[in-house]
Amino acid sequence: MKKIVSISCIVAVLMLLASCGSGDASSSEVEFYTDKGGENVGIMNSMSDKIKDDGGVGFKTVGYTEVTAYETTVQQSLDSDKAPGLFTWWSGDKLKKLVDNDLVVDLTKEWKDYYEKEGVNPSLADAFTIDGKVYAAPFSVLYNGILYNKHIFDKYNLEVPETWDDFIKVCDTLKANKIDPIGLKNDPWASFLWFQTLIASYDPDLYVGLTNGDIKYTDPEMKKVMKIWQKMIKKGYFGEPVDPASQIKMFSSDKSAMVYEPTVTSATLKKDYNMEPGKDFDVFVPPSMTANAKKVIFFEASPIVVSKESKQSADAKKVLQSFYKKDVQQIFVDEAGIINTDNTKSDDPVNGKFVKEAADANKYQLLVRYYEATPSEVVTVATDELWKFFYNPTDAMLDDTLNTIQKAADGAFK
């Protein structure tokens, strides 16, 4: 009987060890949460496979497509060891809140030792720097431009506008021919896109002062910008806002001539709508309203952060040590059009060319987009109020919009 018990105990112990071993194997992949779900999940898992093939630590992508649900899920887990090892977030004020609450890992050393050596632009670290330390690595750096349908432009003998007056003439011609000059998407957050664009085209310093609290939304110069937007809305330059997929479909089917989007959209237009970059569509930077002034390109530097409390924190840092290697990032370029390093190559004449061109400091001024550049409390109010103004662009609504956003700014910058 004692022998039987002993054997039973040995078997039980072996089973327990086997169970523990299989648990370790399943947890060896770092959980990587992202709000950029959809096809990016498969692409990112392919990147993980490449990292593992090269002997590195892999990751498992958990993708979300609904931003609010994603943000809530991540925030509820960050103060426990069940937090994902890696997750994508937003730069600016939202990243600062995580840093202030000691929830993310300092990656300053990793930037010098790994990311920059693999071709990540060192200047991008500024977008993730808080109090002199870098707390994130780039998931994607997206540059915004005006994509235009070349078939429509050719049909009506339109040229790429070099001045603001040229741009208005293009819009007038398109409207006269019953083509929506500018297609819009109805995402709740997207109301700020033309708001930021018009301010920066009018005066980049006005935009910078507005987002850091030095200039009030009720400033007379801001009212002038809103008047320009008001006139564009009333003249019908903007199509009815539709869901993002329909916006791109309308652009590809010659129903709208221009969309203001990240140039990475080029990959979607080619893959899903058979539009050839450079032949069927191209891109230009919004013209300045001031003669001889630099044009402004807005960019979104989406950060990857490491959860400080996660039990996967150490392995998460190892993932990022491999994430920017040339062969891994080339998958991102080829499959998603996302260009993060100088070591990769893009055959896309729209996206690849634009990313390189954006680095020309003599021609362009790069600015962080509104969503990340100003406090989230202000952004939340502004995106609601700007949609209200778009659908009811009266003088009274113009004043109400600016006054309401300024109240939020007063609280945020106090």
UniProtKB/TrEMBL annotation:
Residues 1-25 form the signal peptide. Keywords: Signal, Transport. The keyword Signal applies. One of its GO terms (biological process) is transmembrane transport. PROSITE patterns: PROKAR_LIPOPROTEIN, SBP_BACTERIAL_1. Belongs to the bacterial solute-binding protein 1 family. This is Extracellular solute-binding protein.
